[in-house]
Every structure is written in structure tokens, then in C-alpha cells.
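Lab notebook, page 48
Experiment: co-folding of the full assembly
Goal: obtain a model of how the components sit together before planning crosslinking
Operator: M.T.
Materials (sequences as entered):
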Amino acid sequence: MITRQQQKAARKRAAEAIRQAGVKITDEEANSIEVVDFGLNQLEREGVQVLTLVQTERISVKVLVLFPNQTEPEHWHPPVEDDPGKEETVRVVAGSVYFFTSGEDTFQEGFMVEGKAHCYSMRHEIILKPSEQITLAPGEKHWFQAHDEGAVMYSFSTIARDALDQFTDPNIERITRIVK
Amino acid sequence: MITRQQQKAARKRAAEAIRQAGVKITDEEANSIEVVDFGLNQLEREGVQVLTLVQTERISVKVLVLFPNQTEPEHWHPPVEDDPGKEETVRVVAGSVYFFTSGEDTFQEGFMVEGKAHCYSMRHEIILKPSEQITLAPGEKHWFQAHDEGAVMYSFSTIARDALDQFTDPNIERITRIVK
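Observation: model returned without errors.
Model output:
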């Protein structure tokens, strides 16, 4: 959970990062940024900030912000009814993104979240710089992180059903509780 | 049709407009920009420049560039087999875009392409500024244009099958022939 005050501060910081990256957004959009701590209560270490630009029954477009040294936990997008699961292309706009997917263990530049190695099983490292992108097939496990400079990305995908995403860490709750 | 030289010049101009708008693209992407004259041989009046960032069986993401006072002809995205047709959100990044869709005739700020009124039947005007967007349902007829400053937009959509798009103007060929 996070407090209203934490939510407000993280939103402001994320909106600034988005605008500094040259992505134009309205004030209304800036105020709608979702601050996600995955129920782990350590937002600065494990979390993500999400601005949804488009959300229809077929398409989703988001801007994702990682603060410096923040990691988005390992997860995958399962099939839902007729949908084989979310297909997603992540394209970097600012900063470097350290991406981990299935495949040969090439873990080198990334860092492990302290004490959480059992929650991050994918160790195939792909480093993406601005204007580089990766497409993830439905169901493909992945996690990603920013280093000292933080990062801003687009996520272009089929319909997003975030609440149904699955995570390696059993303690995760996708819907962040906001208190006070 | 356009010549190789025209294609090259238009690509360069479009890449510059995209980068000036703050959208980061690779040189390889810049060199892949599609210059489309719709077979009408008046690119500066009726045409569009298209950079495809993502194209899968489910999703398409493009950057569209309109040169000053260029108009993209009226068209729609028909059903294809199981697909009800392309659903598309256009989001403006730079410049103003004059959008025309079905609905009450509110044509006011836009201009008609000289001698082509019979090819532009939609007269419901929606003016979009940077960070504003519109979502078009499958099959919805639309056309759009830039004025003196030109425009850069994102197009986020379900799978694009450009060659199957339908146009009001019977003289249009969607696939531009490049000569010499």
C-alpha cells in the first residue's frame, strides 16, 4: 500500500520524467498516472508508474516510468477466454532498460532485488536503449529494471487486463491499495 | 507514382518532422518511411508519410506525418475475414490536425482539396492539438489534413492491412509506385 501523499509525489515525479523524455501529455493524463507498488510496500525498489493513453476492448497503449533503480517484478500475461493473452511491445523513450526474458542465462549488467532471487527466475538479459524495442509473446515471463538514470517506455499491446496478470512472487497484489 | 528522388526527399523531410516533434527513431526506421501518393500524382496535396514502428498479427503502431497543407484522402478500414476491421486511435504529437468523420456537418476551419469535393464526403470537423486523440471504430469513414505547420501523429491500431483499405476516390491506388 501507499499513502495518498506518496501517490501524489510519485505521480508528479513520473509526469516530469515523461515530459522530459519529450512525450506530450495533458494535465488530466498526468493526474491519472497509476502508481503501482504491487502490494510489496517498497515502491522505490519494486514498482512501476503507468499512464494509460488508450484502452479499448482490442488495444492498449501505456507510458511506463521506472524511477532510478526501480524493478518491475517478473510476470506474464495469461490467456483469458478467447484471448491467448496480451501481446506487448515495449519501446524505450529515455534511459536504458534492462530486460529479462526466457532463454540462455546472460545475466550480467542487471542487478538482483535484494533478497528476492527466488522471485526473478528469467535471466536472459536484453539491454534496450532509446528507440529500441522488444515484442513479448502472450504468456512469456519477463521483468525489467532501470538503473541510475531511470527510464520511460511505451507499451503497445493487445487488450490489457492488468488485474489478471500473473507474478512469480506469491506476495504480489496487482491492485495497489491507497491509504489515508 | 513518385520518383526515387521524390521518395528520398520526402523521407528525409518526414524524418526531420518526426524528430523535431520529439519522437526518437533510429536511422534504419527513418530510411523505412513509406511515402504514399495514393496513385494521385500530387503528393504535396494528397498524400501521407508513414513510419511503421510495430506490425504484428494483432497490433500496429505507426507515426504519420502530414506536410503543410497535405490531406490524407477519405478512407475506411473494412472487415477482413474474422476481423471486424481496423480500430484506430490517432494521437497528435505536433501541429494541428483537422479530422473529418461522420456526423453533423460542422466543416469550418478545414479546406477542401481543389476540385475534389466529391471525394471527401465526411464533413464533421474535429480539430486535434498535440496530446489530443480520437478513436475510430472499424469501418468509420474519415479523412484528415494539416495546415501551414504540418503535423505528426501516432496511429495505434489493431492489425493494419493497408492494401485492403477502401477509398471514396475511385482513382486511388493504395500502393504507391516508385519509378526510376
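Interpretation: The first strand of chain B starts at residue 2 and ends at 3.
Next step: discuss with group before ordering constructs.
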